[in-house]
Design brief:
alpha/beta, Rossmann fold, 7-stranded parallel beta sheet, 7 strands, binds NADP nicotinamide-adenine-dinucleotide phosphate
Length: 242
């Protein structure tokens, strides 16, 4: 029987690459989206065309709204049955130093980046019982820069929740995290933005999507791995040497 993955925020960018990668390895994929209905539909069409023997379906949910979060996995299970992989990829990424942070900006980072993955992990454990969870954090969790204060805090929280869930759900479910660094430019920035940023990391180049896909493969293939964080960040977590 084919295995099925739910990827949140899968219609574009890293999430889309994950969907195409897993589908190429034989997985059925549930493509979660919020605003990107058209890209999600286009991706389902592309996946169905490339991999006709597999099942693909898009599921909408605003992960800032807890009612929609807790409805997502039951809706997916009604279509696919209990599934084998949850990837918490969807995220908001809003800059703000602590002194400028509004309660609204704080809440949206926490709700989408921490609360939603927390309850999706809960529901995966309760509905699916066995399999893998992979949470996307950020290499920023290793430093205390506050220019994205609420975002960084939400991802630090998600890493702590990853370890907690790994302990609670073992051995039936493995829970791991990936911390990308300089990977894709934000949608309103160009490639030079990324190249400039990469000058300050040890590997001096943006990593692109490859290291993330290799990290996914490693987590899925290494059946003894749980509660671990793989950095796909060109050494950024090491800090700077001068
Ligand atoms: N890109 C990088 O260089 C980088 C670096 C470090 C860490 N990461 C982490 O890697 C992951 C993927 O990065 P990315 O740059 O590909 O992400 P992204 O494009 O910023 O966001 C991915 C998706 O999240 C969804 N999302 C946002 N708000 C939502 C909400 N309220 N409800 C439901 N979905 C929502 C959006 O779906 P819709 O479009 O459908 O609304 C969006 O397409 C994220 O967790 C990010 O924090 C990325």
């Amino acid at each position: 029987m084919k295995q099925t993955a739910l990827i949140t925020g899968a219609s574009k960018r890293i999430g889309k690459s994950l969907a195409l990668h897993l589908a190429a390895k034989g997985w059925n994929v549930a493509v979660h989206f919020n605003n990107s209905a058209k890209p999600a539909d286009d991706l389902i069409a592309e996946l169905s065309d490339k991999f006709p023997g597999q099942q693909f379906k898009a599921f909408p949910a605003n992960l800032a709204e807890i009612d929609e979060v807790v409805a997502l996995i039951p809706a997916m299970v009604r279509v696919f049955g209990p599934f084998q992989l949850l990837v918490n990829n969807a995220s908001v990424f809003d800059p703000s130093y602590i002194q400028k942070t509004t309660p609204e900006l704080f809440d949206i980072q926490m709700n989408v980046n921490l609360k939603a993955p927390f309850f999706l992990m809960r529901d995966f454990a309760n509905y699916c019982k066995t399999g893998n969870i992979i949470n996307f954090v950020d290499t920023r969790i290793t430093n205390n820069k506050s220019n994205f204060a609420a975002y960084s805090l939400s991802k630090k929280g998600l890493w702590e929740a990853t370890k907690m869930a790994a302990l609670e759900f073992a051995p039936a479910i493995r829970v791991n995290a990936i911390a990308p660094g300089v990977t894709l430019a934000p949608e309103d920035k160009d490639e030079n933005y990324l190249l400039n940023l990469a000058q300050s990391i040890p590997m001096k180049q943006p990593g692109g999507i490859g290291p993330i896909l290799k990290s996914i493969d490693y987590i899925l293939e290494n059946k003894h791995l749980t509660g671990q964080l793989l950095f796909a960040d060109g050494g950024e977590n090491l800090g700077q040497n001068a």
